[in-house]
Write a structure and sequence with these properties.
single chain; mainly alpha; 4 helices
């Protein structure tokens, strides 16, 4: 930012930004998809009568899941990717 803008403008822009670091193990997008899948199976697998009840159900589920400190165990390793997606991994000799 400081290479492109003067210091005052760079600081103004930087103050508006929030940096969110993604996990280093596994794809953060896959992790989000897994969480939504679990939410659907454990919480949203029935008719919920109205928006207020939906919000309460999801908040209760979220609090319970967070209190258990649930984790996603990423099992797809680089070696597995090289086998399954071999056309995407060129051979280096």
């Amino acid at each position: 930012m400081y290479k492109t803008f003067n210091p005052k403008e760079a600081r103004r822009i930087l103050d508006k930004l929030d940096f969110h670091y993604t996990p280093i193990h596994g794809s953060w997008l896959n992790m989000a998809e897994i969480e939504f899948s679990i939410l659907g199976r454990e919480c949203l697998d029935r008719r919920i009568p109205d928006k207020t009840a939906l919000i309460n159900e999801v908040n209760t589920w979220t609090e319970e899941r967070n209190s258990k400190e649930s984790k996603i165990i990423w099992r797809f390793k680089n070696e597995d990717a090289r086998i399954k997606l071999k056309r995407l991994y060129p051979l280096i000799k």
